[in-house]
Amino acid sequence: MSKKELVKQKIGRSAMQCFAKFGLDKTTLDDIAQAVGLNKASLYYYYKNKEDIFIEVALKEGEDFINSLQETTVLKEGIENRIAFYLESRFNYYKNVLNMNRVSVDTLNKILPRFFELYNALMKREKIFVTQLLGKAVADGEVEMTDLENTASVLINLTDALKHSVEQQAILKGETEIDYTQSLQDIKFLVSLIFKGIKK
Fold this sequence. Notes:
mainly alpha, HTH_TetR, 200 residues
């Protein structure tokens, strides 16, 4: 790891501690610089603003989480259980990354486009993983299906759409908290609906 990457790692850790303590909105670059032991001007060499720090670190954490989740998912019994566990776990993880203790609705609205632009690369890997899960289930004779890639893509996209929908509604209504209960129930229903149609 280069010196620059080590410093960025240190900035990221310190920034996330500040975000957890004060929230993203109230944390200043001065707070982060002080926590790292740098001056504010030095931070600009690495990041344009605190939102960029948040997005980069959150995505790195997300990548580590997804790697661990995929290892755990393959140990579950049965394809429906694996898919349901994977989709619900990733949903819960991402809602906590962008929860209201760390990010206000206004800031969430600002950072979501950039967050999901960068998140797309990780999502492609997730779709490959779900495709592989489905492929193994077909090979094992658990399910009958032909378009594995499209099914995987729909499962991930619909899960994310349910999450984004409830977040956008909260933003439009100016609500300070987001209730994800219905979205999680909808994910469970979606998975059971799909597997009723393809299970042997």
